[in-house]
Specification:
There is one protein chain. The protein is about 55% helix and about 25% strand. It is built from three helices and four strands. The chain has a four-stranded antiparallel sheet. Helix 2 packs across helix 3 (about 130-140).
Length: about 170
């Protein structure tokens, strides 16, 4: 079959090259593609982890601000004004929001605190990011507690905000 030694060496070299090609395309190349995909997924997960860590620190800050407001309401202002609608209207006006619909919720007695009630009001408005920030700043100044807060962003970039605010009021006022 082989006439010379040179043909034998050439035949063996061709076989080794063929086997090497099949190993590369069948094993090494898929492993490298899988490695690249895994590497990309790891990068995405690292980014998500960093975002979640940042969110956790924001949650801690929000909880601290909530506690500060709760302390302010309990310690410094045991007898808060009863006129929620007027107060929320002023907050909205300061935030650049005109005539938001408001829905006062029936007052409920606060457990274990005689003579005080929890008064809630629901506010719904549409505005931009600056309106939202000013609204939240004014809510904080007014010593309200935010019971629920929902923001939906429309395709035009405007925000539809529904908030339920609460204060503690003296029932004898």
């Amino acid at each position: 079959m082989f006439r010379t030694r040179r043909e034998k060496i050439l035949f063996i070299a061709t076989i080794v090259a063929g086997i090497g090609f099949f190993v590369y395309t069948g094993v090494i190349e898929p492993m490298m593609a899988n490695f690249m995909t895994t590497n990309t997924e790891v990068s995405v997960l690292k980014t998500e982890l960093q975002e979640l860590t940042a969110n956790l620190s924001e949650i801690d800050q929000i909880q601290q601000e909530y506690q500060d407001i709760a302390d302010y309401v309990e310690d410094d202002h045991p007898r808060l004004n009863d006129d929620l609608e007027r107060m929320v209207y002023n907050i909205c006006r300061q935030a650049g929001i005109s005539n938001p619909p408001m829905d006062p919720v029936e007052r409920r007695a606060i457990d274990d605190v005689e003579g005080y009630k929890k008064a809630s009001i629901r506010v719904n408005f549409t505005g931009d990011f600056q309106n939202l920030l000013r609204f939240l700043e004014e809510v904080k100044k007014g010593a309200f507690v935010v019971e629920s807060f929902n923001v939906r962003v429309g395709s035009d970039g405007r925000m539809n905000v529904t908030a339920r605010l609460m204060r503690i009021v003296d029932v004898q006022e």
